[in-house]
Amino acid sequence: MEFSTSLIATFDPAKKIVVLTGAGISAESGVPTFRGEEGLWKQYRAEELATPHAFEANPKLVWEWYDWRRGIIGKAQPNPGHLAIAEMERLFPDFALITQNVDGLHRRAGNSKVIEIHGNLWDLRCVADGRVREDNRVPLPQIPPLCECGALLRPHVVWFGESLDQEDLTQAYRLIEECDLLLVVGTSAVVQPVASFPLMAKEGGAFVIEVNMDPTPLSPRVDASFQGKAGEILPALLEKLQGYWGKGGNS
Ligand code: OAD
Question: Which of 33, 53, 58, 198 is deepest in the core (most CB within 10 A)?
Answer without folding.
Answer: 198
